[in-house]
Design a protein that fits this description.
The chain has a seven-stranded mixed sheet with strand order 5-13-12-11-10-6-9, sandwiched between helices. Strands 2-14-15-18-17 form a five-stranded mixed sheet. It is α/β, with parallel strands linked by helices. The radius of gyration is 28 Å and the shape is globular. It has helices spanning about 10-15, 20-30, 30-50, 60-75, 100-110, 135-140, 150-165, 185-190, 205-215, 240-250, 275-285, 310-315, 320, 325-340, 345-350, 350-355, 360-375, 410-420, 445-460, and strands at about 80-85, 85-90, 120, 125, 145-150, 165-170, 175-180, 180-185, 195-200, 220-225, 255-260, 285-290, 300-305, 380-390, 395-405, 425, 430, 435-440. About 40% of the residues lie in helices and about 20% in strands. The longest helix is centred in the first third of the chain and has 20 residues, at about 30-50. The structure holds pyridoxal-5'-phosphate. The site of pyridoxal-5'-phosphate has 14 residues, from helix 7 and strand 11.
């Protein structure tokens, strides 16, 4: 019994007396440090029983282990990452990064109180829905606007307000799945409406909608942008203008789910044509719905623009209360929308637009400079590649880009994993046995982070 190695393991109190423990207590608090030390000692006793003990009496390794435990537990779950995937609106990486102006506005709104629902003129209760309404109207030409949690929420709210217990007429070619469980037929049913599908997968004519209206009890005509896939060949669809004319005759509102929320001309970003909210409004749609965090480049939000009387009905639907947005979202959205007032600078200030409009030659120069900085020991090639818009938009459209392709004896998967475990994590692609870092989605002020992350990840192989 006397030569039981466990006898050498120090006790909790002795470890907590160490200078290093005092520093840990300063940083993490006494209770968590005590807890971590207990855990480490329990492992040590098990290890000692299995005969794996080293210098069991030395306090330093126990405290180092405890520190690692505490640091891991203190790391936030939701963290900043560097997106080197080349997918600009990467839904899994939080879609649109925010403009500096939006981040400042968000922080301001969060720092103290705000006039979220307070009328500063009157000194009385106001409405949170006024804050972005005028800007949305101004930028899309609509009479009014409303902000809810996301585009999916705006669709549920619109259909529930206009068509609960009644039919919504939709083309069979537009019964789409957006992703993440968002399927038009299911959302429509959950909103309390009945689906009346018309036409066929590839062809739907205005006449098909007219027949569906003739059956009666219709609450709305819904047009959905097929944002994440393309149909080609023998196809036909009714335009928003056709549907508005039909709806006006029958007194039925037309709701257009536009999806991406592009407020600038797609050609100015080198993108193919894409329906825009301003066009739906000009065509006379009763409501146009779009996302705040796709090509608009703002926070997650669902934006509704359209006729004032209809938007007012949405605003007073009790469901609107369940879908309402936070002050931080409103602040960031308002600041982002404001940037669109100056068409000359918006493309350099909204990060998503900036990433889309950076010339490939400039991306190439950044890739070459970064490769240079990595030094001779890193096996890196600079090569052209294709970035994509992402976020379920512009399927099949490649955005010309430049990449770093890195080979390592540890293998590409291992290197990519080490990059993900860095601080901040760097997320890259793996192709043909190389780690591929696409510089189009890496901002110039993130290049240092990529450099450090890479050098650390590669050095880890030596140890
Ligand atoms: C992306 C998309 C949505 C969903 O938008 P969220 O803001 O993610 O809820 C809805 N409709 C269309 C056409 C879309 O492209």
């Amino acid at each position: 019994m006397s030569d039981d190695p466990r006898r050498l393991i120090p006790g909790v109190d002795r470890l907590l007396e160490q200078e290093r423990a005092a520093a840990l207590i300063q940083r993490f608090g006494r209770a968590p440090v005590t807890e971590a030390v207990r855990e480490v000692l329990a492992w040590a006793r098990t290890a000692a029983e299995e005969g794996k003990g080293r210098d069991l009496a030395d306090p330093a390794p126990y405290l180092a282990q405890a520190e690692a435990l505490l640091a891991a537990a203190a790391r936030p779950s939701l963290r900043r990452v560097v997106n080197a995937t080349g997918v600009i609106l990467h839904t899994n990486l939080g879609r649109a990064p925010l403009a500096a102006e939006a981040r400042t506005a968000m922080s301001e709104a969060a720092t103290g109180y705000s006039n979220l629902e307070f009328d500063l003129e009157e000194g009385s209760r106001g409405s949170r829905y006024v804050h972005c309404a005028a800007l949305l109207a101004e930028l899309t030409g609509a009479q009014s606007g409303l902000v809810v949690n996301n585009c999916a929420a705006s669709l549920v709210l619109a259909l529930n307000t206009l068509a609960a217990g009644r039919a919504v007429v939709v083309s069979r070619g537009e019964l789409v799945e957006i992703g993440g469980g968002f399927r038009i037929p299911e959302m429509l049913t959950r909103a309390g409406a009945r689906l009346r599908e018309v036409g066929s997968t590839n062809r739907t004519r205005v006449e098909d909608y007219r027949q569906a209206l003739d059956e009666g009890d219709v609450g709305a005509i819904l047009k959905v942008h097929r944002s994440n896939f393309r149909v080609s060949g023998f196809t036909e669809e009714a335009s928003p203008t056709d549907l508005v004319a039909l709806g006006a005759d029958a007194g039925i509102p037309v709701v257009h789910d536009v999806g991406s929320g592009l407020l600038v001309d797609p050609a100015s970003l080198g993108l193919p044509p894409e329906p825009r909210p301003v066009e739906s409004v000009a065509a006379g749609a009763t409501l146009a719905l779009f996302s705040g965090d796709k090509l608009l480049g703002g926070p997650q939000a669902g934006l509704v623009v359209g006729r004032e009387d209809t938007v007012a009905r949405l605003r007073t639907n009790p469901l609107c209360r369940a879908l309402r947005v936070d002050k931080g979202t409103l602040a960031a959205l308002e600041a982002t929308l404001r940037l669109y007032r100056d068409p000359d600078t918006v493309r350099s200030r909204v990060p998503v637009l900036r990433m889309l409009s950076e010339p490939a030659s400039a991306v190439r120069r950044r890739a070459e400079a970064l490769a240079e900085r990595l030094g001779r020991d890193v096996e890196v090639a600079v090569a052209p590649g294709n970035a994509v818009v992402g976020g379920g938009t512009f399927p099949g459209h490649a955005v010309p880009s430049w990449t770093l392709r890195i080979a390592s004896p540890m293998g590409a998967e291992t290197l990519a994993a080490r990059l993900r475990h860095g601080n901040p994590p760097v997320v890259a692609r793996v192709e043909d046995g190389r780690v591929v870092l696409d510089l189009r989605t890496v901002a110039s002020d993130e290049e240092d982070l990529v450099q450090t992350g890479l050098l650390r990840a590669l050095a880890a192989s030596a140890s």
